[in-house]
Amino acid sequence: MKITSYEVLGKLPDLFTFEDGRKVQSLDDWNERRKELYKTAVELQYGEIPPEPEFLEITPLCLPNTVGRMNIWRITTGTRAHPVSFSMYAHVPKGKAPYPVVIDGDLCYACMQDPEISDKFVEHGIMLVKFHRNEIVPDIRNPIRTGNLYETYSDRQFGALAAWAWGYSRVLDALVKLGLADLSSVTFTGLSRGGKTALLAGVLDERATIINPEATCAGGSSCYRIHMKALTEDGRELRSETLKDIINAFPDWFNPAMKAYEDDEASLPFDAHSLKALLAPRVFFDSQAESDIWSGPVNTYQTSIAAREAWKLYGKPENVLWYWRSGGHAQTPEDFDMLINVIEHERSGVPLSDKFMRLPFDPPEPIYDWSAPEIE
C-alpha cells in the first residue's frame, strides 16, 4: 500500500486523564474513567442504549440441535407491550453442548449464506450462530426511527447500530437459555456496518470473550481525526471515510448529536481508541484488507495502538490483534480461518499464524503522547 495523503486533525484524547484533570493511578480509577469513556464513545456516538428486556421467549422453527443442518429458532423479546421478534440460525457441531460460539448479525450478507463458511466452524467444533439484524430495526434512512425496537423503547434516543448491537446480546441470552453456549468462548463478529455493530456489542456485553470486527470504516475502528488517501493493489487512489461522510449518508445509525462535529473532528471528546479500550482486557481482533482504503487502514492502526495502552493496565497487550489480507471490502473464508485460529489459540493454545500483526504500510508516528500508568 502506498499512502498518497495523510492528514492528522488532532491528537487522540488521553484515555487515562479524567474530565476534571485527575490521572488514572489504579484499576479502581480506571473503572471510574471507563464510565466517562462510555458516556462519549458509546452514548454520544450511538445514543442511549436499549435496556435489558422484560422477557425473552424462544420458539423452535425446526427440529432443534441437529448436527449437519440449519437449526432455527424465533426469539421474541423486549417489552410485553411492544415485543420484537427475529430469527436465530445455528450450525451445530458434533459433540455435546455447550459449544464455543461465534455470533454474527450479518445474515443479510451473501457471504453468511455460504455453506463453506458454516462448514469451517462446525469442522472445528464451533457453533456458528447468525441473525438478520435488520429484523430488529430496518436499515433504511428513516430519521424518524419508527418500527420494531424503536417502538419497543420509544422513550430512548438510539440509532440503528445500538439496536443491532442489542440483538447480539439477545441471541447470546437465547443460547444460554438453551444450554448451547460455552461462555468461556463467545465471539462477536461482523463486516462493515455489521463490524461496527459487533464492536459496539462487545463493549456492551462483557460475556463476549473475543470481539472481531472487520472493515468497520468510520464509526467503528477507524479514526475520525485522520483523513488519508492511498493506492490500492491495482493502483487506484482512494480515500478513507470521514465523520461527515457517514453521518450524512447514514443518519439513522448514530446519535443525532454527532452532527455537531462533522466539520470539527478534532474537538470530539473521544475517538475509536476510546471505544476499543472499553474491551480491555478481552481479546480484540481487528480484520482489515489492504485495498480497502475507505476503511482507513492507517486510521484503524492508530486507534488500535492507542487503545492497546488500556490492555497494558492488565498486563495483556498481546490480546490486541490485527491482520491485513490482500483484496478489498469483504469478509472472506480466509478471514474466518484467521478467526478460528484466534479462537483455538485462546481455547487450547494453538499457535497464532505469523500473518498476524503485519502491516501493509510503514508504521507512522503515533498520534498520542500519553501512556498507561504503571500499576502495581
The level of helicity is 25-40%
Can you summarize the main beta sheet?
9 strands, mixed
Beta-strand residue percentage: 15-25%
The strand count comes to: 12
Average per-residue pLDDT, rounded, comes to 95
String of helices and strands = EHEEEEHEHHEHEEEHHEHEH
Distance between the termini: 41 Å
The count of helical stretches stands at: 9
The general outline is globular
Radius of gyration: 20 Å
| Multimeric status of the protein | single chain
Uncertain residue segments: none
Strand order of the largest sheet: 2-3-4-6-5-7-8-11-12
Q: Helix/strand-derived class?
A: alpha/beta
Summarize this entry quickly.
The protein is α/β, with parallel strands linked by helices and 376 residues long.
Fold and architecture overview:
The chain has nine helices and twelve strands. The protein has helices at 27-46, 115-123, 149-152, 160-177, 193-204, 243-249, 272-277, 297-312, 333-348, and strands at 2-8, 55-60, 70-78, 83-91, 99-104, 127-131, 181-191, 210-214, 226-231, 237-239, 283-289, 320-325. The strands form two sheets. It has a nine-stranded mixed beta sheet, sandwiched between helices. A three-stranded antiparallel beta sheet has the order 1-9-10, with no helix packed on it. Strand 11 (283-289), helix 8 and strand 12 (320-325) form a beta-alpha-beta unit. Helix 2 (115-123) runs parallel beside helix 9. The mean pLDDT is 95.
